[in-house]
Here is the input.
Amino acid sequence: MSIPMFAGPDEEVDAGCTERALDDESLPVVYRELAWREPIPSPRCDDRVVASRWTSPPRDDLHAVTPGHTHVVEVFLRATRGTIHVDGRAVAAGVMPAGSVFVTAPGQAIHAAFSEPLDCLHLRMTDGFVAEHGPIDAAPLAGVYRDDAIDKLARALLAAHETGCRALCAESLGRPIVSRLFHLRMSGARRMYAPTRITIQGWRLARVTDYVGANLDKPITLADIARAAGLSPMHFAAQFRAATGHKPHEYLQLCRIERAKELLDRGTLSLIEVALETGFRTQAHFTTVFKRFAGSTPHSWRERGRR
Here is the structure.
């Protein structure tokens, strides 16, 4: 007897450690979640890394508490938009590209609301496992990151699940993920607990938004956007990032991808036409950027919308 790889919400699941003789081949790599960040528990007491996946339409009522002696690493598999609060304090708001990583420490309470669909991979890592890869006390990992390497490792874990791999895959791929997180933390890549400072006037931001929206089919430089805001490129770049959390180039790419999603959903243009309409010179570059921000290729995005 084995726990189903994807149990439904009405199916009974043994939540505790049992004495049943289950070998590794009977266990899934990635469990389904019955609630956000709450996987179907593994029956083995010695699991140090448990992977689970959460998919849902837009939600504004997500709550969870990180279990004691555990870190939870959340990797966004597709871009979404929303807000995340930790212990009552806002830590992220706005667009979260595919590959964004959200890490919480033991006991932290999380509340989140998302206005777009969610597809997330969660990794529950015991403190003992995390401490093997870096100093938890000296370099706490809790924070929000954006990292292509972690995104690829998360997708490799999903691929292992889909191809039938079982034994200790989550722990094996969890090692480079947590090592990478310590590297990012020590290099200052973490973005969390830093209050957003609105250092650019709202009317300047509105002019930037209007300019970018009207010119997405054309090449746009930092100087162009700064001119629209009425600031020098150097001052604009610093103030814009402080106000929005995005570099101007990243913001521009997000806008291009959001417009591309709209055009793909309409289904009236070819992929190369969508690429040109959103300012990309080649379909290959468009596909690369779209997959990085949206978590799928333009073709897959369009086909999914037709189902």
Summary: The mean pLDDT is 81. The longest strand covers residues 118-126. The chain has two domains: 24-186, 202-306.
